[in-house]
Amino acid sequence: MSVIRSIAAISVALTAFTGVAQAKELVVYSSRQEHLITPVFDLYTQKTGVKINYITDSEGPLMARLKAEGRNTPADIFMTVDAGNLWQAQQQDLFRKTDSEVIRNNIPAQYRAEGGEWTGLSLRARTIAYSTERVDPATLSTYEALADDSWKGRVCLRTSRKVYNQSLTATMIETLGAEQTGEVIKGWLANLAAPIFPDDTALIQAIDAGQCDVGIVNTYYFGRLAQTNPDIKVKLFWPNQEDRGVHVNISGAGVTKYAKNPTEATKFLEWLTTEEAQRIFADVNQEFPANASLQPSEEVQAWGDFKADTINVEVAGRRQPEAIMLMDRMGWN
Ligand code: FE
Fold it and tell me: Within its chain, how far is the Cα of 27 from the centroid?
C-alpha cells in the first residue's frame, strides 16, 4: 500500500503544479477489492488517458482517513459497498454533492442519494440460500417465515456486525415496524443450527456440508462458490415475491468533499454508470448492473428473475442505528 500511497502523493503534487489544467490522474479510495475495480479503471485510462490511482482498505479505516486528511486528502472518489456505508460517509460529510443528469438518467432514484452525494454502481440481492438435498423450495416463502417452528435447528446466520445484515434489518423495520422485525429476529435465532458465522462464504459452505439447511446471503458469494464448485448442493431462493420483494443493496461511490479534481471525478463517476463500464463492473463480481438498461450476465440470469424490494436504499442508512440496537437487544451477535 505504501507504494501506491506515494504515487498518490506524487499525483497531488503534479496536479498542484499544473494548476487548473485538466486532471490527468484521479485518486480513488476503495473498500472494494483491487481485482474488482482495476478492470474498469484500466479501461477508463485506455479511453481517456486519465490514470486512476487507488488504495484499497476496509471502509472504516478509509472513512477515518478521509476525515483525518480533511481538505488535504488526495482522494477524489470514495467507493464502497452497501448503502449503510455510503450513508455513514455522507453523515460524516465526506462527499460533495454531484448534480449529474447522466447519473440521474442511468441509475434509478432508489439506488442514489437524494442530494447526489453518492450513487449505486452495482446491485446485489441479500436472499435465502438453501440446501438442494434437504429443502423443498416449495416450503420456502419469506424471510419472516424462517422464524417459524418448522425451521428449528436448520437456520444459519451471519454476524449482525456486518453492515449487510444491518441494512436488511433496517429495511424490515421500515416495512414491518420494529416490533414485528424483532419477533422475526427472535425466531431466526431460536431456529439456529450453528453459531453465528463470520462471513457469507462460510455460511454457504456450511449449507453445502450439511450443517445448516437455509441461510441469508448476498448473491455474489453464492456465484463465486458455484463458479469453482458447479456441483454445490445449494441454490438461491427469492423470498417475499407476493409482497415487498427481495432485499437489494448496492455497491457505490461518490466524489469526495475535498476532491482536487471534482469535474474530472464527476466525469469518471458518470462513465461508471454507462453501459460500457457497467457491463464489466457488474459482471466481474457476478452482480446486477445498477443501470437498468443492461441485463445481468448469463451466469447471474441463470439464478432466475425476481421481484426486488423497491424501497429507497437510503433507508438502510437512516435506520441503521435502530437496526443495530434491535439486533443487539434480540441477542444477534
Ligand atoms: Fe461482500
Answer: 21
Output the pTM of the full model.
Answer: 0.92
CA angle 111, 107, 70 (to 5 degrees): 65
Q: What is the pLDDT of residues 185-216, one digit of tens each?
A: 999 999 999 999 999 999 999 999 999 999 99
For residue 228, report the distance from its CA to the centre of ligand 1, in Å: 17
pLDDT in tens, 13-38: 444 444 445 679 999 999 999 999 99
SS3 117: coil
Specify the length of the chain in residues: 333
- Between CA 180 and CA 33 the distance in angstroms is 36
Compute the chain's Rg from CA coordinates.
Answer: 20
CA gap 246, 217 in Å, rounded = 12
Distance 103 CA to ligand 1 centre (A): 24
Distance 33 CA to ligand 1 centre (A): 10
Report the separation in Å between the CA atom of 186 and the middle of ligand 1, taken as the mean of its atom positions.
25
Asked if residue 259 lies in contact with residue 265, where contact means CB atoms within 8 angstroms, the answer is yes
Bridge partners (DSSP) of residue 256 are: 95
Give residue 81 CA to ligand 1 midpoint distance, Å: 7
- Give the single-character DSSP code of 205: H
* 142 vs 237: CA distance, rounded Å: 9
What residue type is 160 in one-letter code? Answer: S
